[in-house]
Amino acid sequence: MSRYAPRELPLDVRLMQGTSRALYWLVALGCVFVVAHWMMQRSWWDIRAVRLQGDLQRISPVTVRAEALPQLQGNFLTINLAQAQRVFENLPWVRTAVVQRLWPMQLGVTLQAQQPVALWREPGSAPQLVNAQGQAFTANLGEVQGLGLPLFSGPVGTSAQVLQMSQTLQPLMRAFQQNVVALALGSGGNWSVQTRSGLHIDLGSAPDSTATQTRLKQFMTLMPQLESRYGRAIDSVDLRYPNGFAVHLQGVDLPGMNKTTNKTTTPQPAGRND
Description:
Layout: H1 11-40, E1 49-54, H2 61-68, H3 81-89, E2 94-102, E3 106-113, E4 116-121, E5 128-131, E6 136-137, E7 151-153, H4 159-174, E8 180-185, E9 191-195, E10 200-204, H5 210-230, E11 234-241, E12 244-249, E13 257-258, E14 263-264, E15 271-272
Parallel strand pairs: 1-3, 4-7, 7-8, 10-11
Antiparallel strand pairs: 2-3, 4-5, 5-6, 8-9, 9-10, 11-12, 12-15, 13-14
């Protein structure tokens, strides 16, 4: 064994050696990256098939492939699955999409379709549809013509609120053999309902309150008696009175009546529930 310790290299030599090793590894890593990138771009990684599954009742596989596939970027290895998901979710009638890689060289796409529960109108916008979650979405309205969907309307962004109110009112109306075909939330916060029989009901600003629902039940109970008494059908009722309601009979023109809308402009309570 040598009696002398190894001689330490000068600082500049050590720095040169360290720099050389670093450059060597950088070049090596760069070569690996270039080779890996070149291999990932080869045609053997191209996506050869897209397998669609899920709720396809209203979603045409032909339309999906024609509209979505040209927008997908990358191959089996490089495709951005989150971006691909957004492409599929932008298609008509698609609510959600889950995209995953399937070996060999395939994409699996599970689609959930929109479930329309009502037509939707809001100021300044084209007619849309409302899904079961209260979200407004755009689709071909001709595809739902035979479903008998009710018409909801309200200010921008209130579709979920109107759907929730519909779910509150529908059971109450059905208890009196009435079906809601239109529910509107006015810009001032007042609600109105149109039934299949043609009855228009002004509900005021709190139709889900106990007081308003009590007046509604009392009116619906009394309506057959009132129609029998006057020999005419009731075409509208105003429930915005704290202790009663005002009705309008079909075909009756009274002083102070707006003949364009056929509704009393300054109604007085016609019934009392106190």
